[in-house]
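## tool: complex_structure
## caller: assistant
## args:
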Amino acid sequence: MYIELKNINKSFGNFKASQDVSFGVEKGKLVALLGPSGSGKTTILRMLAGLEHQDGGDIYIDGKLVNDVSVQDREIGFVFQSYALFPYLTVAGNIAYGMKIKKKSRQEIEEKVKYLLNLVGLPGLESRYPDQLSGGQRQRVAFARALATEPQLLLLDEPFAAIDAKVRKELRRWLKELIEEVGVTSIFVTHDQDEAVEVADELIITNEGRVEQIGTPFDIYRNPKTPFVAQFIGESVILRDYEYEKIRGYKKQEGASSAAIRPEFVKVVPADSDVEYPNGYMDGVVAHADFRGSNLELTVEVNGLELKAEYVLDEKGLKKGDPVKVFVSRLYTFDEKNAYTVINSSLQTGEIYYI
Amino acid sequence: MERKKQGMILLKVLKSGIVAWILLVLVWRFGAAFYTDDFLPGPWVTLKGAAALVADGALGTDILVSLLRVIKGWLLGLIFAIPVGLLIGNFKTAGYIFEPFLNFFRFVPAIGFITLFLLWFGVGESSKVALIFYAVIFPVMVNTIAGVRSVDEALIEASESLGANKARTFFTVVVPSAVPNIFTGVRLGLSGAITCIVAAEMLAASEGVGYLIYTSRLYYRTDWIFTGIFTLGIIGFIADKLLQLVGRKWLCRFAVR
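## result:
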């Protein structure tokens, strides 16, 4: 592993920001630390950077123990949530800052600034000042500044948080492509699932200072391993006290009393439709139907349960009170400690699922 | 369209602050009508008195003398107070040691020290310069310290993550970030200097605007007193405007407004 954290602990007063955090990151990967606010993800990032120091545990970068290496000497690039561009320096001055410290020649600096500005898509903006740039442009400059010293590790703290929604989507793809191009190992912090899933090769899910699960976005999405991940990922409906028994195709699983059901695994069709696995369907009624542009967000009542479902609009559409058939293709049951993926028993092959 | 244009011109006139001056002269003129010139000379009488002072060169000399003292004391104050303020602001230990002094003496006005400074530095120029120095350093230090302490922590971390050591961060992040506050201190220091030079010249001087104001009472030249007062106002006003101009021109990158 290129980056390794071993049994990291960190407290701020009584608040435990990191509890026995261990994980590794392979060279060249783009990894997201994903968790709700206060889950300790930024603290992990700051400890990696050397801006914060762990109370216990070891951090290795490229096989080297860096516990006692100061932030100045860790050779990391850090992109701050607020960009933290020096307002009194030009774009070129900002990008050149780290290179001047490394005593690069003037010519080398000039060329590198030009190269980086091209790379981040802002050619010719050398002599602008940060307050003459838009949020997205500032972010790109911050990114160029962090890359200028050719860090061995790039750390990004909520890199898109301060950018408006439309530009954000564009920047995400841009960042992913750019990091792939540069090939620098990168870790970024986010609380936005969509962002993490879209950008990262690998997710590290944090909660209350602990690492809950590590894996590819697909893996974590399909097979959450802990109750927290089962509930946190997606927009699940949570059923308690073995209520999931009432759903056709699922049996009581001793110990795992709760279940998380995601809308994308709930198939709803009008009551008069022909269906592929009639044994798995239950009769229900539409309780709410919210128009979401490309689809309907449905709440259906089935066997006394309220389930959420997405319904792709066809010509008819559905409205409140319409009778429907409902099929739940998969759900996640969980006990205190673990989560289990359960597939509807009427799906014999087990690998067919609806999205 | 025409009306709108007229409105714009009116707004411009209002914004220039000239209305205040017109009002002042009107009220002054009105008030002066009820009293003798010895008690409250009107604008015209004052202007004539001022003209006489200008003609014999007395006013010019007084202004020059006062200005020189102010500039000397002010510059010395800045040279001392800005670095010291930067250090106190940046180093916690220095803050613990020196801030109590600061918080004690900044409430003792310079005028309180006039007699003491006369005793220590004599009646010559040095006592006045020392007094101005004293008046200048506190606002400058207090504002400089505040500026250093309000530097955005993320900028410091950014600088360190780019490899800058403490000293480099201090000079390339802390100091430039504190410039707007320092500049405020510099301006306040200047107004403090002008305020205190008058007091000093009233008590112990043979030249200067303060001396002019103080001695004019002996000759019942109330118009000269008025002249002195206006001169002070105008000097301060122009000096501050000049400073602001310098700030906008040279320091705008540091967000000095």
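## assistant note: Chain B has a mean pLDDT of 90. Chain B has eleven helices and no strands. Handing back to user.
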